[in-house]
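Page 37, continued from 36.
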């Protein structure tokens, strides 16, 4: 949850604040907010995400990460839609639910859990959230021109990038390339991408 994602930043941060309420003002190098939306109603989940992402802290954040379940449980599309609306269309979404350490991989824009197909096309998943998406395959993720591919897809109108990943190295490359974008992205993924 929130504490796990915050722990991923421990090596680089001096102060970490973990909150359970989006109205909490917390000072720290990393602020992790547990919205507890997975078992809530969709309406409640949308409201919690909207409030959190409309906050001044979210708008100022250099790195903004929306933790999702690696098997897509909960109201993932509704929450991504609410987050993106709250932030405005200038912030693209990098969608990478893979969590290799737990046997969750994305290949061909589809989620596999321990080798078994677990989702349809994730571009359609993003489109349901109102985010026209471009797929970045493994060859692109592993290429030296990944940052250029990200910029190119966004300049052609994509608001979300659905990213394949089979390994921690794939996720690391994606994170580095995402951070190099001129427009700061909203990273949406599991604890694998947070790491």
């Amino acid at each position: 949850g929130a504490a796990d994602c915050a722990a991923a930043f421990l090596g680089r941060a001096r102060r970490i604040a973990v909150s359970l309420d989006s109205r909490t003002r917390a000072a720290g190098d990393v602020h992790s907010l547990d919205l507890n939306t997975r078992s809530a109603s969709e309406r409640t989940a949308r409201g919690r995400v909207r409030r959190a992402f409309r906050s001044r802290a979210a708008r100022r954040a250099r790195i903004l990460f929306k933790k999702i379940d690696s098997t897509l449980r909960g109201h993932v599309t509704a929450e991504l839609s609410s987050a993106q609306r709250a932030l405005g269309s200038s912030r693209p979404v990098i969608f990478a639910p893979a969590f290799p350490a737990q046997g969750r991989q994305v290949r061909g824009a589809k989620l596999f859990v321990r080798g078994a197909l677990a989702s349809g096309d994730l571009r359609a998943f993003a489109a349901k959230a109102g985010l026209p998406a471009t797929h970045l395959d493994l060859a692109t993720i592993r290429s030296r021109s990944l940052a250029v591919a990200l910029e190119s897809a966004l300049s052609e109108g994509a608001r979300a990038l659905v990213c394949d990943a089979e390994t921690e190295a794939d996720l690391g490359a994606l994170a580095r390339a995402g951070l190099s974008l001129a427009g700061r992205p909203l990273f949406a993924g599991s604890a694998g991408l947070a790491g």
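Confidence is low (pLDDT under 50) at residues 1-11. Flag for discussion at group meeting. Residues 92 and 185 are 5 Å apart (CA to CA).
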